[in-house]
Request: fold
Amino acid sequence: MANQLKVGFFVTCLVNAFRPRIAFAAIELLEQAGCCVDVPEKQTCCGQPNYNSGDFTNTRKTLEQFIACYEQYDFIVAPSGSCIATLKKAADELFKEDKDWQMRAQKVANGCFELSQFLVDVLNVDLPSEARDIKATYHDSCSGLRALGIKNQPRQLLKTVADVQIVEMDDNEVCCGFGGTFCVKYPDISTKLVDEKIQHIESTGADCVIGGDLGCLLNIEGRLNRLGKRIRTHHFAEILSSQGCLAKKASE
Amino acid sequence: MTDSLFTQQVTAALTDTALQTALKNVKNGLTAKRHAAVTALPEYERIRRQAVRIKNKTLDQLDTYLLEYEKHVTAHGGRVHWAETPEAACEIIEGICRDAKAEHIVKGKSMVTEEIHLNAHLEKQGYEVTETDLGEYIIQLAEETPSHIIAPAIHKTKEQVARLFGEKHKLLDGVTEHSPRVDLVAEARRMLRQKFLAADVGITGANFLIAESGQHVLVTNEGNGDLCSLLPDTHIVVSGIEKVLPTRQDVGPFLRLLTRSAVGQHISNYVSFFSGPKKPEDRDGPSDFHVVLVDNGRSQMLNSEFKSMLRCVRCGACLNHCPVYGAIGGHAYHSVYSGPMGAVFSPLLEGLKKHGDLPNACTLNGRCQVACPMDIPLPDMIRQLRHQAWSHTLNSRASRWGLGCWAFITRHPGIYRLFVKLAIRLLAVLKGRSHYIKYVPFGQSWSARRDFPLPETSTFMEQWKKKKG
Reply:
């Protein structure tokens, strides 16, 4: 197709290492939405660990690598709100003294979108729908929610594409205690926060908790498992893609 | 850095069951009430923008407005004193008390007097100082410091307060642990009334100073601030220099935001405008009136990237919306100011060496800025402080080395792919036959409390390459 929208897909470090199936699901959704998806081989990290630790010099270097890798694309999409929020914020903040890099950074940052935001706000297309018969609760990850305004988009997709029944938990906008390096620097506070989150998740009676950032999901999942709870965690892309249908069939 | 006093306090706080019970009051009380009050005010965002505009304009010409304020206070017959440091402020206040031949001092709630450690200074000189805000009174009896900027005793349960009163008020009819709140309040009032009547000097803070009129505004729920201001013959107002607003009209939007953000009240029980000492036609009021304007690092903030921190009106909304504060309470911060505003303000006042943990103990979730009526970019400032710590090599060597290596890897895509590939192979060895990893060497902070998720057999990039041929 000549008019296909070309998208540079950013896998993100956590998905690349721990949950490749989220990336496959995301790419499937983008292709269903009519995009031509490219996965640049030279992609690495958005710089978030260094940026949030205050190491701005190294963050800038990591971002330069990202910019060089993605500046050929008008749209850059990632299955993570926190990576996209970092790219946008750091690109805006760290190149103020270099006009040339600032322009390149700004162009790339303007093209960056989180997956649900891109599917709903930019493309606004109908994806093939099939009911999944899932009762879920949704955890709003902080960066996506507050830096990018992601709230309704994943819920709308889960409803229209997969007919997921979403039962909202109390405090669904409160941090799960992940916070990147926070959870290893202050593990006791982090555990207290994730335990509160798990209580709220449990009281919804949902079979699974869905979110849009793998960091939060790994934190919640790791703690759920340690506590011996049977609630599953999923990225919304997994539920929306054909993997969601397969998972449903497997459990039948 | 994490084996610090802060970490020890965190452990103590998390295992303190009374504290954990008390902290639920923050969420169920203050946070929920603020939400209801703000939702019921459709023009909230407009007022918020207006207040931010006024404060920014004022801070741009802070010197002008402060001098105008001083001029009008002087015209009322009061006196303004300028204190650059906490020590200078304490000495000025002590001097006024000495001149007044004071013995008994009553105080309204004031965070800036906590900041300059005024009570300790005055008590060392032999003055009797009584805190008259109920929360402050409780923690003074308990010989503690405030754990919240607007609810200083929020870490205490009612039962703990009853026991404390039982111990300290031996001469009065004792209260028991089962006494209702109203009895505890009545007992505190009975004790405090004597102090008010005997006081020679009253010391209060100020919520706002008004440049055009030389007035100051005090917002309280208990009326104790008014008694401190009006009953003793000498009244000393202690205020940070950032509290000034240009006009009386400017106070309006701030009053509408302040108490809604703090406790969900549309307006507090007492909103008083004071102007200098008693006039001949007044029946009450002090004959001697002083204002001590405290800088303590604020001028430096004014000329830095932390300028907007000076917009803070000390409502405490950021504390009430901070998950970390909600988990550990205020004392764990081991600083006068706690929560998100404390994580920025305390290192700026007393240095990152002393308070290095504070900006780190934050998940950067951003809820504080959303709740802040002055829209202070607290998460950005917290990150900026981490940058300062990084630039001054205050972080641990391990974290600097680790992040340096990571940054190197991210700049070399080939090495990055290889590194991730090897790392997940290593994790596959650790998992054994389980679906989760219970122990990760060097990753104990995670794996002591959570299972480590098992990667798939290979990275996405490997799988993708295979798929695409």
Summary: Chain A touches chain B through 64 residues (CB under 8 Å).
